[in-house]
Amino acid sequence: MTTRRGFLRSTVFAAGALPFINRLRLPGFRSGSVTKPLVLSTWNFGMPANKEAWKILDAGGKALDAVEAGVKIPEGDPKVTSVGYGGLPDRDGHVTLDACIMDEDFNCGSVAFLEGIMHPISVARLVMEKTPHIMLAGDGALQFALQNGFKKENLLTPEAEKKWKEWTEKNNYIPYEKTNHDTIGMIAIDKAGNLSGAVTTSGLKYKYHGRVGDSPIIGAALYVNNDAGAATATGVGEEVIRICGAHTIVELMANGYSPADACKAAVERIIKIKKDNIKDIQVGFLALNKYGEYGAYAIQNDFEYAVYSETENNILKKSDYSFR
Ligand code: GLY
Fold first, then answer.
1. Which ligand 1 atom lies nearest to the CA of residue 98?
2. Domains contained in the chain, CATH given
3. Theoretical Cys-Cys bridge with 199: which of 31, 60, 185, 282, CB 3.0 to 4.6 Å?
């Protein structure tokens, strides 16, 4: 026999169920149940990040704590050249960082154009928890971090400096453009069924000094609505901002799309806007709904993401996830 709960759930996830949902109003979304925690993050450096997040989720901790702890792994890893310490600098040789975090109650915090702080995600969390604001940028963000006990460090590694110098010799100060940019975006659901997410990056390499991407912008690189789902983004931030990527995906999930279909619809919006001129653009989206179902989609085929749960610890490639 179909129970009311089962009926609501299957209806919610059928595309085109919007009029029905509107009649029922949102409490219908609360009827799903999640029994297992789960964490997802972009790219293969998401594997060690997920492992760290999992320790907290498995112990019954909060998704918010898990995503912060998780993304701190690539932030502190000098081998990851697109996040935190070891990140490639802007065209003037400055490593400038963007990060944001969001919890299950629409609380959110972010930092943009921050220099010299190893863990911008933790500064973003403090902005969320200790200020009446959502975003701090540049010198103000640095001042806030220093006042709260963070220490200023040189994040430009000798390897990153060498690459930047080589670039300056070959390129006429023209910002580098390539299909990929490897931000870490992490989204998780905890044992209590609550969602959270975190994003952190050093941004596009050799960008204009002062350029801010999608990563600190709530609704672009990250959005969480605990009644529907969470989504995150990686890739060329300008394209993600243009469509309010993560918010778009969460709204689509709230209106009955599966996570994978919502990600695909967002990618299709970008492709349409760019009039199919997408050869040099990579954008990847990752989404998780209230029921622990997840999916992803990207413009280019080389996008991959990491998933960790009681039953999985994998990297999924586009061929694995397109129709999940
Ligand atoms: N998605 C990262 C950036 O564009 O900076």
1. 5
2. 24-316 (3.60.20.30)
3. 185
